[in-house]
Amino acid sequence: MTDATQTAFPAQTPRAEAARDAQGRRDRMLLLIVALLALAAPILLNPFPTASALAQFNAGYPDLMQRFAIYGILAIGFNILFGLTGYLSFGHAAFLGVGSYSAVWMFKLLSMNVIPAILLATVIGGLFALVIGFVSLRRSGIYFSILTLAFAQMCYNLAYSVLTPISNGETGLQLSLSDPRVLDGPSSGSLPVTSLFGAEMREAATITLGGWSWTFSVGYYVCAALLLLAFWLSIRIFRSPFGLMLRAVKSNQNRMAYTGLSARPYTLAAFVISGMYAGLAGGLLASMDPLAGADRMQWTASGEVVLMTILGGAGTLLGPVLGAGVIKYFENIFSKINDAILHQWVAVLPDGLEDAVVAVIHPFVGKGWHLTLGLIFMAVVIFLPGGLVEGARRAGAVVRRRDRNAPSVESDAAARRAAAE
Questions:
Q1: For residue 156, which of 24, 300, 53 has the smallest C-alpha distance?
Q2: What are phi and psi of 48, to 5 degrees?
Q3: Do residues 95 and 129 make contact, with C-beta atoms less than 8 angstroms apart?
Q4: For 215-233, what is the mean pLDDT?
Q5: pTM listed for this prediction
Q6: Which of 45, 68, 255, 291 is the most buried (most CB within 10 A)?
């Protein structure tokens, strides 16, 4: 290498290399923590004894844990687009829906093994994202968001009423005994179930210890393994030169253009990757319950993933997973709290006061759980623009500050005692 080349491209300084190594260690530690939490989720999400009144808040049953993982994958993919480039898509439900339809068709035509279905769902989600992104990314800002929303609604209406031979319309696509299933052969007697090389997705083992009961499901651990893979890939993307270019797109596209770089190939690549994540999530939804309906393409589903990402922390690694968990927890736990459960909780109060307390809490639970979620979302946006991850960082900073100040406070007290003596 010549002196001129070395001057133009200086070697990385020891400080930069040390910073990169430190960042790598933090990322590996974060991945390890997420892996441990995912493995122990059936225990950690069931903190209350089964017979206790607080068992209502346990979330360690397979169906809900699977949704935590699946929607975490969806939010991670959306964060690659929105968190890194700043492009806000309102059409990701389209990729979620086509992923589900692709997986169910694979179950009907080929095999009940989830691997081919998941692979096809991911590929079809990416192809749809390539087509939609190629058109939508000709615009930016609100115009891009409206274009993606329009495409998603077009897909919804096609699935609901136009392409009924493929989607089965409003009834939804589901399995039947007459499906050919080339590799498995036609079914007889009862509908087959999805499996992974012979292990059924619904297969589970329950362990009871004292008043606690924990269920370990094959389907959940399949979803958790794919969540960890998706999380690891997002880390690689965030720390790669490609990720830096996506941040440059979000920072200032005009400066990129002045340097001779076009932002569109990078944004299109991010859009396709994000669509593949959404297709994977749709395939997993169908793998857990072999049914695909047009409702998964509704605009509300697209809005939900936006809320997940912003609530957890857009542009952060862990934020989208946290946001997905919070929203799905409220949807499945708070929505089941009715007036009868509320009366049980406050039964010790006098009758008049009991009715008044239930009347005050009633709008925030049950069918009104959206109100509680909306208030939380407003508080996060106003006071924690960086989402729940920013809240955790602030809390950690306060704890570290107290730890640093504690020795000085003790030494000051010792000095005052010595002076008094």
A1: 300
A2: -110, 145
A3: yes
A4: 95
A5: 0.90
A6: 68
Q: Tell me if 67 is assigned to some domain.
A: yes
Q: Which amino acid is at 402?
A: R
Domain-embedded: residue 358 = no
Parent domain of 143: 22-316
Query: Is 277:126 a contact under the CB 8 Å cutoff?
Result: no
In a domain, 361, yes or no: no
Report whether 97 contacts 128 (CB < 8 A).
no
355 lies in some domain: no
Domain count, the chain: 1
The model's confidence at residue 8, banded by pLDDT at 50, 70 and 90, is very low
Tell me the CATH number at 143: 1.10.3470
Query: Per the structure block, which two tokens stand in for 159?
Result: 């699935």
CA–CA gap between residue 65 and residue 238 (Å, rounded) = 26
* Per-residue pLDDT reduced to its tens digit, 138-182: 998 899 999 999 999 999 999 998 899 899 988 899 998 888 889
